[in-house]
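Lab meeting, item 3. Inverse folding demo.
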């Protein structure tokens, strides 16, 4: 039985929608599905081993990040599960895109 759980905030869900839109536009539906499937596998990995992420005090107290190909996943651990509140392109400055987001 898989007991690995994670939660996506509405902002993180919006990030995934934008990633999908951009990837379909640039590289097609098949590549988009592969990329998003890989992201979801990474979310499950973080759910099973939340401490894999790197501490990100520059983003906020208790914030962790973990890379996936061209993106970085930002999350907190809340009630022993990752709460993913952002999935940004690795070239984006986190402070410019994560300030003001609901983290939990």
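The presenter then showed the designed sequence:
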């Amino acid at each position: 039985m898989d007991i690995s759980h994670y939660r996506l905030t509405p902002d993180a869900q919006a990030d995934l929608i934008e990633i999908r839109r951009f990837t379909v536009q640039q590289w097609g539906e098949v590549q988009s599905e592969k990329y998003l499937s890989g992201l979801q596998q990474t979310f499950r990995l973080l759910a099973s081993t939340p401490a894999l992420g790197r501490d990100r005090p520059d983003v906020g107290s208790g914030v962790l990040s973990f890379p996936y190909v061209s993106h970085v996943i930002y999350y907190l651990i809340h009630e022993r599960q990752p709460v993913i509140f952002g999935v940004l392109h690795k070239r984006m400055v986190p402070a410019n895109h994560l300030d003001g987001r609901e983290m939990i």
